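Dear Dr. H.,

I hope your travels went smoothly. While you were away I took the liberty of generating a structure for the chain from your last submission, since the lab meeting agenda had it listed for discussion. I wanted you to have the full record in hand beforehand rather than looking at slides cold. The sequence, exactly as received, is reproduced here:
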Amino acid sequence: MSSAATDSGAADLVCQLDNVQGIVDALSSVRWSRKQDAVVELSEHGIVLIVEDTGCLQAKVYLQKELFVHYEYTAEARPRFGVNLSLLIDVLNTFAVPGLSNSIELSYPGADMQLVLKCADSLEFCMYAEIRTKIPDTISWDYNFEPAGATPLNFTVKIDFMYYVNTDILAAFNCDRRVSHRYKYKFLSATTSNLPSSVIKDNRGSKLTVGRGGMLKVQHLVSVARPFQSHPLNNSAGYQQPSRIAYIEFFLKPEEEDDN
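The corresponding predicted structure, in token form, is as follows:
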């Protein structure tokens, strides 16, 4: 952390978010290791964070520009940088203080190519942090998900607390033929085991699709909408925020079949 100022006028991206906890929940969903590095890609459409494990499991968090209350992108190319995922989540968590402002401004790059975070609208206190970034690792494989035939196997699952024993698990199911693939349990577990309880309680459902070659795609929806409360941006007593969703996708390769 640092108290130094940064020249946001030279940044490729300056954006403001009014619900830090929502982003923390989304990023926590793809953290399965404390020593996990992520690649962050910036564009005029939003922010994409990518993590992977041994070329078998890849996860992406899509933060579209509509999720932000302010999004100013000026880069000509699409900047990419590497960052430790746990460090990023921990720093964001320091800004998610109950009862205090959770609006945060992010800018990149700082004077030393760092990611800069600071409180956006509080007049009572100031928080400021810098995260050192690094040259991103090369993404080892292209997920290139292709449907398996005209009707890919896909089904939607409702994630519920254990005591909801009477709730149907499958909300929808679609399959036109029998298929069989094997996946490593630790990778399969990683697609759901790190979802925060707040995401499970929101119960927006998850979609699983088996594509060509047995590639498994698992999709989750995470709300990053700020809990309703009085806010200077509200222009009437009946103001309601539109639903804002972060999209999370996992891509899991099947185990190689042993011909012997």
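Two observations you may find useful: The first strand starts at residue 13 and ends at 17. Residues 48 and 154 are 24 Å apart (CA to CA).

With kind regards,
E. W.
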